[in-house]
Each structure stands twice: as structure tokens, then as C-alpha cells.
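Continued from yesterday's entry.
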Amino acid sequence: MKIITLTLSPAFDVHCSVAEFRAEHENLVQIRSRDVGGKGINIARALAAQGIPNTPLVVLGRENSADFLRGMDACGLTDRITMTVEGRIRENITIHPTTGTETRISFQGFTASYDLLDEVFAAIAPDADTLVTFTGSLPKGIGSDEAERFLSALQAAGARLVIDSKSIPLESLLRLKPWLIKPNEEELEVYCGALDFAGIVRKAEELHAAGIENALISLGAFGAVLACAEGVFVAKPPQIKEVSTIGAGDAMIAGFIAAKDADAPTRLRTAAALGTAACLTEGTNPPKADTIGAIFDQVSVQKR
């Protein structure tokens, strides 16, 4: 199967350390890492780390595209498709205090037009043997209606869709009926309002019943819920000491894709193992194979 990991709005992920982050004060920070990122890039790296071929398709702002391409080279993403538009690639800055929670600052990136989606469609050349991940935010200039038409055209050509994007509203997801969606608890709340665990399970069931083949809800350290044709399953990962949660959801998607031909418990267990293992690496670095194996054996999956 041809796997295309699409990133329409990439970013440089900058991770900084500070003893104590103080709002409304000057904070002197130390840069820990500066990586190429975007949800599609994160999925591509996690798949590649598992030895699964995929082709990152990324749109770059011309002003700093050379720097981004060097970063892709450095992490082994050399088999790729790139397009450029005017403007700059955005930056996401994550501040890691010694104690307390992370703070993230995101900048606006370049502006694109709907014509770009026609070029992307042609570059993908979708057919029934194609899986496309559509994740992350849309660039300024492209709206959700335009994105839905693009995604619908991919499906009409036979492509299997993975969607994890705040830019695609619930109404579009219900019309598109993708192969996989992976909202986290916060994103599900935007769609449906606040839910307790039982409500999350019911909503996953409803999303699957509405035609979404795999409704995977990530719950952070509490695990994940999957509703699919084989039933509803709940995964609980082992407790770990997190290093960074950035990119963990993207690693979950990579794990699910990696196990796409397995049964539902194995798909969910693999997704949870990769997502948990990703939390043990700095920044958005992909999970390590030996860590994944150890965690996989500790993930419990139960059918509801």
C-alpha cells in the first residue's frame, strides 16, 4: 500500500528549558532542540522508525524552506514530495519548566490558495492502494469546505483516509466517513461537549455507527478507546515518567497504521504502545523500537 503522510502546514518545533516560567515577565530560556515538525511529519518519522515505507508530502514556505529540507534530510525523510509557496514556515515554541506544565506558543505560517490542493491531489495520484493521512491545521487561505472537497475527491479515487485535524469539523467527518479518526479528549469535547468516560465510549460507538470505520479516541495517560466493526475496546498503557508528550498522538496514528492488517485489539495495543513510547523521547522524536516492544507487552486491552 502507498502511504502518503500529508503536511499542508508544517512547523519548526522549538523546545526550550527554563527553571520557572513566569507569565508577564521576561523569561531567559535555553533551546534544547529545533526539529522539523507538523503532524504529518511526525507520523512519517514514526512510521519510518518502524521500517514502514511512506512518502511525506509537505508544503513549504519559500523563505525558510532550505532549512526545513535540511532538517528532513537529517531525520531520514529523503523519499518525499515537496511543494513551495510564498511566505515562511511557522514555528511552535514549547517551554519546559523544571516544575509545572508546558507552555506552547504557535506562530501563523504562510498563506496558500485552493489551487494548491489541486496540485497536491495530482502529486498523490490516489487509487485504491493509497492511504493518505490528513492531519494538523490548514494553512491560512484554505477553508474547511475546500478541504472537504479535496478529501472527498481522494476518496472518490479510492484512497483510504486518516483524519486528525481541528480544521475539519464533525459535520465534515460524518459526511466523509474516513477509515480512521483520532480526536483526543479535548478535541472530542469541542465536537460534543464535556463527557465522562462512559460518554466517551458512547460517542466512539456513535461515530463508528455513523460510518467512520475506526473511531479512536486518545485519552493521554489514561489510554484510548476504539470503536470499530469488531466492537468497542479500551486500552490502558503502563504508567511512565513522561519526557515530552508532543507528537504522542501522531505516534499513535503511526502505530495504528503499522498494524492496519491485524485484529482490532492488536491495532489498538500497537497504537497505544507507540503513543506511550513517544512520551519517553525528547521533543517530537519518534518512539524507539526497543521501548515500543517493552510497552506493548504492558498495554492491557479489554472489550467493552
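--- second protein ---
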Amino acid sequence: MSYLSVAIVGRPNVGKSTLFNALAGSRIAIEADSPGVTRDRVLYPLTIEDRTFDLVDTGGIGIVDSQKLEKQVEHQISLAIDAADLLIFLVDSRDGITPLDQEVANRLRKSGKRVLLVASKVDTQRIEDNMPSFHALGFGDALPVSAKQNRGVYDLEEAIVAALPPAPEGGDDEEDEENRLPRIAVVGRRNVGKSTFINQISGTEQVIVSDTPGTTRDSIDISVQHGDTAFVLIDTAGLRKRGQMDDSLEFFGHMRTERAIRRADAVILILDATAEIGKVDKQIASFILENCKPCIIVLNKWDLAEEQNPGITLDSFTRYVNDRLPGMHFARLAAMSAQEGTNAWAVIESVLELVEQGSVKVGTAQLNSALVKAQQKRATKAKGGKLGRIYYGTQTGVSPPAFLLFVNNPSQFDDNYLRYLANQLRRDLNYPEIPLKIMLKSSNEKEIGRYS
């Protein structure tokens, strides 16, 4: 499905990200008082009055970036303007028209795009009385908005819908859950090649790529169509130890990476094959496991690792990964060079297989037969002279596969036994590479031998 695109543009620090979040109804883009926080395009699918479109936040036009990424930021802004069906030109009501606002206005006129002029930070009636002055920019009257006070946001929503191109006959198509594209989060610590990998897959510079660590701060959804295959990649901020975070921007980027993992159908965890697996890699793996997400572990920069260590093999590195990330022993492992594009598409094909594997629902009889077999093979440790007993189980969900087991006493089942049980179910129910979610509930039912 192809959505319309509405991009918020303007000079730095006029409140673009704050307005973006107000329209989205959630803190998706990072907000801060300092200019230049938003670098990549941040996209959020939004529906207003049955009109669906991609709302896009952009970097500030004319930004002077502390990491010398002005050209990359500008490239992202140009892409957003070129793709937009409607531009929201945001100005700061308290500053009046600045020379940079005039430059932005001239650029937007040359784009030939439909422009909706909006004045931000209109917190009082006195400020609103100054709105006529913005008419000089040549886009009509400015619509007054205070995103933080939620003032004028509803009027802006109505104006956006009115300014969009007419809906196709029959209305906009909405993607239902059954037909929703698979979402794949690309995660890893800083500077392991996540954005380079995504650009290889998307075939264009959808996101900024830089050797400067910490370039990507927001999570970015990127739709990819390759032949008959369609999916969404979620690019995320590179993570490092919480104690090493420079400021609140990194902290919020960390939170958004965790949220990206939670809403993904599967995860690509990228490791640097030339570096040791460290604490941050372990923290990310732990969060993936905690949320029961299918995951492929990708060893990036494999070509460089082979140059540094000619005797290295995937088998030997697999043993090393299993030793450092023992909870991920069932996860697939792949080697790749994102810079060269080597095996990049093989990684995508592999992770999509995991998505399909995690969407399978097994029959009740098959599940309970597997539970009987697991208990016969190994019983729980006795506590208070009693063993834990599973009476029966049912599958309550997919992606991830979730199972509710009715037992005599949940406290009889320790973590070791639950890990054993998950391993047995993965093998017997054909989920060899998928984490399973197992929940226990007390019951007075009879044992499940009747299902065997």
C-alpha cells in the first residue's frame, strides 16, 4: 500500500519534532531545546478522518551540525520534500519572520508542492494576534498552534485533510493486521553498520550513513519492496553502556530502540566480527529474549575479520557467540559485509523465514503430546516433597508463539526447567529457531496423559 506523504519542514528549533509528536499522539521523535536533534527523516503512518498518510519529521533547514553532517541532513530534507504530497512549513510565532524563514519559503515555492503555513508556540492570545505578519511569506495566513498545550492541533488536522489530494474512489486502503507487512528491527551497538546494511537493502540512501558513532538517534521505519517480497525495516540508534551516554538524547534513543524491538516481528542483531562481544551486545540480546523475538545474529565486517584472522570460520565464531550469548543458542547466525553488500539479501531472506516460523499455530493435541513427552523425559525438582505437574496446555498466540500451561503449582517450575521445556517444545513443535513464551497458571485439572 502506498501512503500519501506529509512532511514538516522549517529552520532549526521551530518545534517540528514537538508538532510531529502532537499529531502522532506519542513521543516518537526526540524533542529538545537545542537545534539539530532531528537528522534523519522520522516517519509515522497516521490516519485522520479516514485519510491515511506518512507523517514525516525532518532536520532543520540551514542547520550547523556539531558532527559536520550538514550535507547528509540536507540530503534527507531534500528527499522528504521531493516525496511529499503536502508540506507543513513551520515557523516560530515568537521570532516573527527571520531571514532563514525567507530562504525556506523561497525553496518551498520552487518545489511546486502544496504548502500549509503553520506558526508554532502560540501559547497566548497576544501571540496569536501577530499571525497576520506571516502572510508576507506568501503562503496565506499562518495557522496558529501550540503543540505542547495541544492548542490548535485539531484545527491543523482538519487543515491537513482538506489540503491533501482527493482520496481515490472507495477511500484509502487500510492495511489490516492479516495483511500487515512484516516489521524487522535492525539493532546493535554503535557503529556496527546498521544504516549501511539498510541502505544496501533499500537500494538508496534512505537513512544517513556516517563513520561517526551515534549518527542515528531515532527509530525509522523504511518500507522495502523487492519483487513480490515486501517488508518494513526499523533502523535504530546505536547503543552503548548507559553510564557512557552523553545526554538525554542518547537515553531517549535507547528507549526507542527497545520499543522498536517490542513492536517488531523479528530482529536482526548486528555484531562487529572484528570486535569482541561486549556488555551492550549482551544487554540487547537479553532484551530480545525478554520480548521473545525471533532473531538472526549477523556478523558484519566479516571480510575484515578474515583479513585479520585468516583461520577464522563461521563454526568457530558460532561457538564463541554461543559462549558469550548463551541464551541465544537457538538463533540463526550469518556472516555479512554490509559495506560490500555481501550476503545482505540472504540475511533478509533468512529473517523472513523466521517471521513465518513464528506465525505457525500448532494443534492442541500436538502441543499436549509434546508436553507429556517432555515430562516423561525429565521431571521437575521436588519441592516440599512434591513435583511440578503440567495438566494441559493451549497456544494463546503467535509471533511469538505463546503457550499457557495449567499446572498444579507454578512455583514448582524453576527457570532451568522452563528453559528445558522451551527447548523440547521448539524441537517437537517445529520452532527450532524461535523463542517461545511460556506462561503458567494454577489448576486442579487431571494430568494430560489423556492427550498422549
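Residues 248-263 form the longest helix (16 residues). The first strand starts at residue 4 and ends at 9. Will compare against the first tomorrow.
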